[in-house]
Amino acid sequence: MSKGPVLFADIGKKAKDLLTKDYNSDQRLSVSTFSDAGVALTSSAVKKGGLSTGDVAALYMYKNTIFDVKIDTESNISTTLTFTDFLPSTKTIASIKFPDYNSGKLEVQYFHDRASFTTAVALNQSPAIDVTATIGTPTIAFGAEAGYDTTLGSFTKYTAGISVTKPDSYTSMILGDKGDSLRASYVHHLDLLKKSTVAGEITRRFSTNENTLTIGGSFPVDHLTVVKAKLNNHGKLGALVQHEVIPKSVLTISSEVDTKALDKSPRFGLAIALKP
Q: Name one GO cellular component term (predicted).
């Protein structure tokens, strides 16, 4: 793949991951194993609100092809097939979920030194079509996204965004929800290794005059432990601790508190990821 601008879906992703990833209010356990034949097996279990669910996933990689299949406790089978460089500078992703045969989707991603494009089509009788495009460089990228419903004959979404990447910071701005929302984010790395990071994100919804500001950060305690925290202007405070118990196996403890309603019990989450 070329080293051009990011895909449109990646604009704003760095701030979103820092402020949302690994913050859980449930109990999760995942166990992964790998074979010499290139097969990865992952078994996951989740308990939330007294209900327990789980799934088993298998991933097989061969040259430029990735085959991923997942089976959950409700006997749904999700299959994803990814081809890299099936055509020059492209990635092709085909997915379907059984027994919902109308859930199939085909996506083609194209990468160029100055642009990237994606086209996703639902595999059913009345397909929805999503198209994205970005132009620029790895430093600055301008992008747009549009979704079209062939049944209704109208656009279901249109979004525009811009991102600026520097060695120690990342800035993005996205105009979405058909022009009804504006989301701006900023990520700053505090050290050369990019292990200590702070981020801020503000979202403005014009139809309701509502603003949401979230600030947070990630900081290493030592080479095995990371602490993350976030707070928004609605008083929601979240924090988590991640510790590498054994190599590649991570324990995550997270919590969320509503500082404007301290009489309510805080929410706690626990996640364990075991890898060989």
A: pore complex
